[in-house]
Design brief:
mainly alpha, 0% strand, elongated, membrane, transmembrane helix, transmembrane, DUF2516 family protein
């Protein structure tokens, strides 16, 4: 039974890391595009304000993944941390995408 809890913890942590890195990658792309475009200063300023959220969720996700090497208690803690940081990263990514969505 312990291996099943560990498997679930690893999968949740991995999904959380992917969501957090997706947010970091999207912010990096926005920042790069804003730097190349005239009048991109407001976007670059917004991206700078979002780096703390992206870094925090990435750090929490990686920490949760690290906790999966422990026993079942740490696996449960890992699931809680990873799920929380994954939800925050996903919501932050969605809000950023909605703010700068263009075209069809």
């Amino acid at each position: 039974m312990e291996w099943l809890v560990n498997l679930i913890a690893v999968l949740v942590a991995l999904a959380s890391v992917l969501a957090a890195l997706g947010h970091v990658g999207y912010l990096a792309l926005l920042n790069n595009a804003a730097g190349k475009r005239a009048g991109g200063a407001p976007v670059a300023e917004y991206v700078r304000s979002r780096w703390a959220v992206a870094g925090g969720t990435t750090a929490a996700s990686l920490f949760a993944w690290l906790l999966t090497v422990g026993g079942p208690t740490l696996d449960i803690v890992s699931i809680v941390i990873a799920a929380g940081s994954g939800v925050v990263a996903t919501k932050a990514l969605q809000s950023t995408r909605d703010r700068y969505r263009t075209g069809g």
